[in-house]
Amino acid sequence: AESLSVLTQQIFQIGLDEGIDFELIFVNDSPFHLETIKSLKEIEYSNNFVKVLTLRKNRGQHIATLVGLDMAQGEYIITMDDDLQHPVEEIPKMLNYIYEKKAEGVFALPNDSDRKHSIWRSIASYILKRIDRVFLNKPKGLLLSSFRILTKDLARATVNGYNAMPSVSSLMVNATDNLVNLKVGHHDREFGR
């Protein structure tokens, strides 16, 4: 809950600095976490560019992300975690890169030296990368991330490709081969665990 207002202000400032017309969508998949609900209500009330949707129950990050993709109206959609580890200041770089590469999607990855994840998270990520390569027929060298930018068309294809066990990145890989990686920074988590 503590990071939400900080994230909102950072995104507002980037939009102002870069002259970007944007909407900010929060999909809350923790309907019984009262601090989060209170914080999101205050943010939505105070900022006309913010939309909040609270799901009836926690169905996981991928369902919440699909809901956000479905709600989004922009030509380009950025997904990111709310814990401030994904640096907002990298958004202009991501926008420029998707234009420059004429890609449908960009997965933003931290430089290896900047990663702030625990050893257990790193091991799990390694295992998932191996599984993705085998089962998804993922292009060699392409790495997946929840910090990503995609076109409106790819977002629609991703939402329409939804299945019983969705992984947003996997749905993107199934929808197109026009995906690239971009190295970005990565921050320590400022609040909570």
Give a nutshell description of this structure.
The protein is built from seven helices and six strands. It has 193 residues and is α/β, with parallel strands linked by helices. The protein has a four-stranded mixed β-sheet with strand order 3-5-4-6, with helices on both faces. It has a two-stranded parallel sheet with strand order 1-2.
Question: Overview of this structure, please?
Answer:
- The protein has seven helices and six strands, in the order αβαβαβαβαβααβ.
- With about 190 residues, it is an alpha/beta fold.
- It has helices spanning about 1-20, 35-45, 60-70, 90-100, 120-135, 150-160, 170-175, and strands spanning about 25-30, 50-55, 75-80, 105-110, 150, 180-185.
- The longest helix has 17 residues, at about 1-20.
- The mean pLDDT is about 90.
**Rough outline:** globular
Distance between the termini: 12 Å
How big a fraction of the residues is strand? 15-25%
Profile the largest sheet: 4 strands, mixed
Average pLDDT figure = 89
Structural class by sheet pairing and helices: alpha/beta
* Strand order in space, largest sheet: 3-5-4-6
The SSE string, one letter per element, is HEHEHEHEHEHHE
The level of helicity is 40-55%
Cα-based radius of gyration, to the nearest Å: 16 Å
The tally of strands reads 6
Helical segment count: 7
The low-pLDDT segments are: none
